[in-house]
Amino acid sequence: MGNFKKVCVFCGSNSGHKKIFGDAALELGIELVKRKMDLIYGGGSVGLMGMVSQKVHDGGCNVLGIIPTALVPIEISGQAVGDVLTVSDMHERKAEMASRADAFIALPGGYGTMEELLEIISWSQLGIHRKPVGLLNIDGYYDCLLGLFDRGVEEGFIRNSARNIVISAKTAQELIEKMEAYVPLHNQAAPSESWNVKDPAVANL
Ligand code: AMP
């Protein structure tokens, strides 16, 4: 799949209890800057979102926060760094993130992060995009989720070829290297051109 430039990061609006999660968000920010990659994220300065966006912004790379109107108030999301695109709802936010990014990385997070991650995985399976999806498995946080995906394969709900969609690693550097080597192996449920994708380049064909 080769190199990518714009990375969408899904991550917690909280920082988690352990310092290691914040450290991982900062390390990811440093890695993106080192590779001159731009960040697309959920906007705001709360939790791990705030840490990764500040690091990328401080490093001189572009940061775009995409935030639904309801989350804009400073007391909810804090002050975003970089550019901010305000959208009407969560569906629009995720569609904008999906179309603007070349690759996706999930740091530890809660329901919001998991939902964004699972959607982008299933969109790859369906053939809506062919972009790499990476999971930063910090301190084993995602071991259970990865185990569940393996169980899905064992029990016949996830194809082996589709299990390959989820790339995971314990460090940002290793993850990005694996993502750059990613080649989709799965058959798309429906061909990319049959999806109503806003911009044909979005499907990365
Ligand atoms: P969670 O993993 O449940 O903390 O949710 C993380 C995701 O939900 C982020 O990527 C954001 O898209 C969104 N989110 C949740 N809370 C906020 C907030 N206070 N400000 C901005 N985005 C938020």
From TrEMBL:
GO BP terms in the entry: cytokinin biosynthetic process
Enzyme Commission designation: 3.2.2.n1
Molecular function via GO: hydrolase activity, hydrolyzing N-glycosyl compounds
Keywords: Cytokinin biosynthesis, Hydrolase
Keyword Hydrolase attached: yes
Pfam families: Lysine_decarbox
Catalyses which reaction(s): N(6)-(dimethylallyl)adenosine 5'-phosphate + H2O = N(6)-dimethylallyladenine + D-ribose 5-phosphate; 9-ribosyl-trans-zeatin 5'-phosphate + H2O = trans-zeatin + D-ribose 5-phosphate
Family to which the UniProt record says this protein belongs: Belongs to the LOG family.
Protein name: Cytokinin riboside 5'-monophosphate phosphoribohydrolase
Organism: Olea europaea subsp. europaea
Organism classification: Eukaryota, Viridiplantae, Streptophyta, Embryophyta, Tracheophyta
